[in-house]
Structures are given as C-alpha cells and as structure tokens.
Amino acid sequence: MQYVLDSPGKINLTLRITGVRNNGMHDLASLFMRLSAAEKLTFRFRDGDNVNKDLLRVHGQVVEGRNILENVLQTVRKTEPHLPSMEVDIWKQAPPGSGLGAGSGNAAALIRWLSWEYGISLPVAEVAKIGSDVPFLLEGSPFSFRVGVGERVFGDVPDVSVSFKGVIAIPDWSCDTGAAYGMADEFYREGWKLTEEEAFREALEVLGLLERQERVGLLPNDFVPVLETLHPEYGLLFQAAEAGGALAWGISGSGSSFFCLFGVDPPAGLFTKLLKDTGFVRKILALG
Question: Catalytic: 156?
Fold first, then answer.
C-alpha cells in the first residue's frame, strides 16, 4: 500500500538573533507562519525477508549529503526497532538553502504519520536535533513565536482572523546557514538588537498590523542587512513588492527566499512579471 502525505513549510515573519550559546549555537526569537502543503511525500513499506534498508529518492531538486528523513527513521527506530524498512519518494519544490523549512517539513510530516500509526512520541529535544524548524512544523499551528533554536514556544500568539495571499520568489543562489550566522556575528559585534521579550512585542505588533490590513513594509529580520551585502539584488525584489501593493515583504530565515504578503489576491500577472524581469528568480510559488 502506498501512502501520500502533504509536507509543510514555513516563512519567518520576524526573526531576531538574541544571543550565542557556549557551544556556538545561536538563540533566535522568531514569528513563524506555516505553509500548509509546500511539498509531498509518497511511501510504502518494503516487503521481503531480505529487505533491511530504507530507500529514499528525491525528485525535483538536488539534495546532497544525508537526507533528513534518514535521521528521522534512525531516531524513531530507537523507540520502535521493529519498524519495517521504507521506500520513500520526496517530491521537492524548494531547493536546499531557500529558508522555507522544506526539509524540516518533510521530517515533520513523516514523524506525525508515524506517531499516528505507531503511537511514537519523540521528546522535543530529539525532534529539535533532527531540524530546528521541525518542532514548529510538527505542532501544526498556523503561527507560533519561538525562541532558542526554534524548539521553545514563547508567549501566546492570538488567532488571526484573516488569511494572507502572497508570492514566494526563490532566487538563483542558496544561502548557507552557518556562513550567514558567521557574517551576522561580525555585523552585530557590538550587540544584538532585541531581547526575546522585545522581539515578542515586535512580532505581535507586526501580526496586528497585518490582520488589520495595514502596510508593514520590510519585515524585521536580522539577516537582511547581511544578505543585502552579499546580494544587493534583494533591493529589486523589495521595490517590486512595494510597487505591487504588498502589505509586507521580507526574507525567510537566513535566506535565500523572498516573500511578500497581500490582504487579497496579489496582482498575479503583473507581479510575477516584475519578479521574472529581475533576471535572477528561478522559481515562483503561490502563497495562500
């Protein structure tokens, strides 16, 4: 029997770096917004007495190195060692290094299904080790404000009565998260801009403005000035969003994806033309 799962993703409506741990990991304070069906997984259990290895295939994008689902299955088998070998096809939309949490969404989708079918409950710390965005995507809520590496909920985010439409533009380049943090360390060497509490208040203000359909403009993300130094082309995307009447726009995570939000359907034809005319956007995805 073959199973089909929608795999979520995310964008960061706000993102602040609040500190660095002794082990070099950075603490974040970020307002996450869920993308309900960014990608898709199909899978089945492999039959046969001599079949004892999982088979993972990736379609649509090139993913180098160890796949995140290998980490999921390895972690789950510590609790459920008799889980049969699996054959999994991952139907990718977002390339690695795009900041949309697509790999973490793949992991969250599979973990959620295994928890339903096998009653497996992984500790949050174990889930966060698989991927920093996995705890939020596993939770299933449309919005969440999270701190640490994304594993801890901070404060209550009110329900939002409107849904946002928008566009995601994936540029020709990808962003290495480690390198982006290294550049941020240098850029903010005199100190990070906000505390967790200040970042939470900022996020609530942004969400309130968006719910009231008031223009926010460029969304707060501590990686933006760093990424603009590397890729000044982002300025053209920001200009296109403003000219297209977007309520808000920004960069998700540590890059590379740009996104913009509209209160109503975006002027799709005109806006996608503006993005394509930049000459460096390789993929455009609808949001909402």
Answer: no
Pair 18, 136 in one domain = yes
Query: How many domains does the structure of the chain reveal?
Result: 2
Same structural domain, 33 and 115: yes
CATH code of the domain containing 103:
3.30.230.10
pLDDT digit string, tens, across residues 105-160 = 999 999 999 999 989 889 988 999 999 999 999 998 999 999 999 999 999 999 88
Same-domain status, 135 and 262: no
Per annotation, catalytic residue among 54, 92, 133, 222:
133
> Going by DSSP bridges, is the β-strand pair 86-91/217-218 parallel, antiparallel, or unpaired?
unpaired
Distance of CA 177 to the CA centre of its chain: 12
Q: Is 109 exposed, middle or buried (0-12, 13-18, 19+ CB in 10 A)?
A: buried
Q: Which residues of 196-235 are buried (b: 16+ CB within 10 A; e: fewer)?
A: beebbebbbebbeebeeeeebeebbbbbbebbeeebebbe
What pLDDT digit, counting tens, does each position of 223-232 carry?
A: 999 999 999 9
165 is a catalytic site residue = no
With a threshold of 0.85, does the pTM exceed it? yes
